[in-house]
């Protein structure tokens, strides 16, 4: 944090990547997030009262349950199938409710309450207030002057030490005095002083909307004060510090998820971190964070707008002022959130709100969980391309954990005893049944979609051990299910899905949704390629090839739009936020301007028909999707316009994205991290794409494919590309100057920029430099 004399103007240093403000947060969405991959906090930066809104990734209501599927669902499925094969959709529709899942003990992630620090000595005018989140150091803090004394608070979420730490200082000896209290909010909780320096709290994740109200994990928390000078006293359930020169507050929170001893873990973590003084704690934390964060640098030039507070820049951007550097800050903010929310050893992946929880999503019908019809996928779109591959590991483990319960669901719902299936959402308890809503519950390819992330990890890393031992078994099981699940349309002979929905627009008893076609085609293709690479399962390889050839083709409707359902043309005129039929454009690679220009044109028309309607449901994740879609369509200006809409209309002054009030039943703007994550991925797609292949089947890297005129000058370092490449780019006057390509595997590669291409053979570890005319330098 910036220090200095009381009369100095406080502005961030030029080499820092910061969000900063000249006022405290008054709302949850204005606060600033810190996290260590498991434990998180929203830091409000108050003056006389600091509030840390706490979250823990395993603090879930609910419990495992074997009865989410209706007992007679498989019989109902067979009846519906008979009707579908005869195109008797009206007769099939009333049976749908008997195939839906049962809510029972589903659960939700819940907030862990609030730690409050009431600081004394805040007399007279408050001057030189400065609140910031340093993305490069992962330090949140506040500095201000009160009664002539300069105060500073810093907050970190240490991954090495597994705790949160708050450090308080003042530039006058003995000036640090405060009271420490905890409140658990709406969960059952209690707190008490333990010993002379520790406040202990406990509580349980109980709620009734998504569980039976009696089950849920329990947490234990320990808040320990280490003062420098002064004294610590206990008054009831409050700790008070008086006359200290400085103080460090250690925060350990754990749950009994999967049988853990939460209290013992807290004591172990506190004992371990107390071996270090504050400077060492901070240094270990910063070094750990920077080992990931500093892999990628992005410079989009622009004005010196960073001399203004972030909220003022955000407001100016909404008024039409140019600020390319704010887009770069938003990009790095997404990477910061991914590091803070999902580390390699995190017990669970990021849910709808990352690891932070405002308590609003948990109270919605759609709850705070892992939605598999777009949102959880978006959370991890940046992990490979922005060089944070380790951060995807918690997601991979969650997907692997779905296989066994998904086998049960396949048998109970469909009478299929080969492979596994998962539908619209899941939780830590292995929920794989259909959802309980007729318009959205039967999203049969949710598990197949999330499983593609394991294949993408292989495509970026080339890790054949991972492919053989982890990715392929998951993909194979999903593919086997669909080989048995698909049915042949009696007229066209195409292999169809159903009953199924196009998320979240319904159609459960009608023709096959196009999103299912896209996902199953990708699933089969991934398994075919993986089996070939591994040299196994030749018979399955042939079955998959034959089935893939019978999947229905993409179709174009009467308004020139891509059809959302096979053989059903609704004109594409709807304001619904979901555009699931466009997954073949992004994140998949089945529709491209080069290989399928007519389908690309139809995908664009689908976007235009929706986003130009006055009733378009513009929310954070759909706005971020538009960035990705237009980037894949190689339209930099449309992608840029979508990015502006995401940042200015679907994010708060904290740059955290939200689901808009009035949509999907929300009465408030509710934080949802998928907009930050998908927006970050979209910016990367504007600068580098690697989803296509050249005529020889080699990786094709598309350099600056969707560069808007507003980013005429810039550079990026450290992006990753499929095929095993790390890429640095520099451009000027909207023209590529140089590209540095580092080969991780030694694969041949074709580079494309605009209408120019060059093919190159590389060696492992080689750094290839290419000039703006795509001529090899060395």
Task: Describe the protein.
The chain is globular and about 85 Å long. Strands 1-6-7-8-9-16-13-12-11 form a nine-stranded antiparallel beta sheet. It has a seven-stranded antiparallel beta sheet with strand order 2-3-4-5-10-15-14. α11 packs antiparallel against α12 (464-485) and α13 packs antiparallel against α14 (538-549). It is built from 18 helices and 31 strands. β7 and β8 (149-158) form a beta hairpin. The chain has 778 residues and is an alpha+beta fold. The longest helix is centred in the middle third of the chain and has 22 residues, at 464-485. Residues 1-14 have low confidence and may be disordered. The relative contact order is 0.10. Helix content is 29%, strand content 23%.
In short:
With 778 residues, the chain is of the alpha+beta class. It contains 18 helices and 31 strands.
Which SSEs are present, and which pair or pack?
Layout: E1 18-21, E2 32-35, E3 39-43, E4 49-56, H1 73-85, H2 89-92, E5 114-119, E6 126-134, E7 139-146, E8 149-158, E9 163-170, E10 176-183, E11 189-194, E12 198-204, E13 218-228, E14 231-235, E15 238-244, E16 246-255, H3 262-273, H4 278-293, E17 297-299, H5 310-318, H6 324-341, E18 370-371, H7 375-379, H8 382-385, H9 393-401, H10 403-414, E19 425-426, H11 446-461, H12 464-485, E20 487-488, E21 495-496, H13 514-534, H14 538-549, H15 597-611, H16 620-632, H17 636-649, E22 658-659, E23 670-671, H18 674-687, E24 688-693, E25 699-703, E26 714-721, E27 725-732, E28 735-743, E29 749-753, E30 756-760, E31 767-771
Parallel strand pairs: 25-29
Antiparallel strand pairs: 1-6, 2-3, 3-4, 4-5, 5-10, 6-7, 7-8, 8-9, 9-16, 10-15, 11-12, 12-13, 13-16, 14-15, 17-26, 18-19, 20-21, 22-23, 24-25, 26-27, 27-28, 28-31, 29-30
């Amino acid at each position: 944090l910036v220090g200095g004399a009381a009369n100095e103007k406080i502005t961030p240093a030029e080499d820092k990547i910061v969000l900063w403000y000249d006022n405290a947060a008054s709302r949850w969405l204005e606060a600033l997030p810190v996290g260590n991959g498991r434990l998180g906090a929203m830091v409000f930066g108050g003056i006389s009262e600091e509030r840390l809104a706490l979250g823990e990734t395993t603090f879930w209501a609910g419990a495992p349950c074997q009865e989410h599927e209706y007992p007679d669902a498989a019989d109902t499925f067979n009846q519906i199938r008979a009707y579908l094969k005869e195109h008797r959709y009206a007769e099939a529709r009333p049976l749908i409710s008997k195939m839906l899942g049962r809510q029972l003990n589903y659960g939700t992630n819940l907030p862990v309450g609030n730690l409050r620090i009431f600081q004394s000595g805040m007399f007279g005018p408050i001057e030189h207030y400065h609140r910031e989140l340093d993305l490069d150091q992962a330090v949140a803090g506040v500095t201000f002057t009160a009664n002539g004394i300069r105060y500073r608070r810093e907050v970190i979420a240490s991954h090495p030490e597994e705790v949160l730490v708050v450090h308080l200082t003042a530039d006058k000896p003995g000036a640090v005095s405060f009271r420490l209290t905890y409140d658990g909010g709406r969960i059952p909780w209690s707190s008490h002083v333990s010993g002379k320096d520790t406040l202990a709290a406990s509580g349980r994740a109980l709620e009734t909307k998504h569980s039976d109200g009696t089950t849920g994990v329990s947490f234990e928390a320990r808040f320990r004060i280490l003062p420098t000078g002064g004294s610590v006293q206990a008054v009831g359930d409050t700790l008070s510090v008086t006359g200290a020169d400085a103080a460090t507050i250690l925060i350990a929170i754990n749950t009994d998820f999967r049988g853990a001893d939460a209290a013992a873990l807290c004591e172990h973590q506190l004992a371990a971190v107390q071996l270090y003084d504050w400077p060492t704690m901070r240094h270990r934390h910063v070094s750990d964070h920077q080992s990931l964060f500093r892999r990628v640098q992005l410079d989009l030039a622009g004005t010196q707008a960073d001399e203004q507070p972030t909220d003022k820049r955000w407001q100016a951007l909404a008024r039409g002022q140019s600020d390319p550097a704010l887009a770069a800050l938003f990009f790095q903010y997404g990477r910061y959130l991914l590091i803070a929310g999902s580390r390699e050893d995190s017990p669970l992946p990021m849910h709808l709100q990352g690891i932070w929880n405002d308590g609003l999503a948990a109270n919605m019908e759609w709850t705070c969980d892992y939605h598999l019809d777009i949102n959880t996928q978006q959370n991890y779109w940046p992990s490979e391309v922005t060089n944070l591959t380790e951060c995807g590991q918690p997601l991979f483990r969650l997907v692997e954990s779905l296989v066994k319960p998904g086998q049960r669901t396949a048998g109970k719902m469909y009478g299929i005893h080969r492979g596994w299936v998962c539908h619209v959402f899941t939780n830590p308890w292995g929920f794989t049944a259909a959802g309980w809503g007729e318009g959205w519950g039967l999203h049969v390819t949710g598990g197949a979609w999330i499983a593609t992330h394991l294949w993408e990890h292989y495509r970026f890393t080339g890790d054949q051990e991972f492919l053989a031992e982890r990715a392929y078994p998951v993909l194979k099981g999903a593919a086997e299910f669909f080989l048995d699940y698909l049915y042949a349309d009696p007229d066209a002979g195409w292999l169809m899905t159903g009953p199924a929905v196009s998320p979240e627009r319904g159609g459960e008893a009608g023709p096959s949704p196009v999103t299912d076609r896209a996902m199953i085609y990708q699933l089969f293709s991934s398994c075919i390629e993986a089996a070939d690479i591994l040299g196994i399962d030749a018979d399955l390889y042939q079955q998959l090839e034959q089935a893939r050839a019978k999947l229905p083709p993409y179709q174009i409707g009467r308004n020139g739009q891509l059809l959302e359902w096979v053989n059903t043309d609704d004109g594409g005129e709807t304001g619904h936020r979901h555009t699931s039929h466009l997954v073949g454009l992004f994140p998949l690679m089945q529709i491209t301007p080069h290989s399928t220009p007519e389908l690309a044109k139809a995908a664009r028309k689908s976007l235009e028909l929706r986003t130009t309607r006055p009733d378009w449901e513009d929310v954070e994740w759909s706005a971020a999707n538009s960035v990705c879609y237009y980037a894949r369509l190689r339209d930099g200006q449309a992608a840029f316009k979508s990015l502006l809409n995401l940042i200015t209309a679907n994010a708060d002054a904290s740059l955290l994205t939200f689901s808009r009030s009035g949509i999907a039943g929300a009465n408030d703007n509710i934080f949802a991290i998928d907009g930050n994550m998908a927006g970050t991925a979209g910016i990367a797609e504007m600068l580098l794409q690697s989803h296509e292949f050249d005529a020889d089947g080699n990786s094709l890297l598309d350099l600056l494919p969707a560069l808007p005129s507003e980013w005429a000058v810039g550079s990026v370092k450290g992006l990753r590309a499929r095929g095993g490449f790390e890429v640095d780019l520099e451009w000027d006057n909207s023209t590529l100057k140089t590209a540095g390509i580092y080969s991780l595997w030694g694969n041949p590669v074709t580079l494309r920029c605009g209408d120019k291409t060059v093919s190159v053979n590389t060696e492992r570890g080689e750094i290839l430099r290419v000039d703006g005319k795509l001529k090899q330098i060395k």
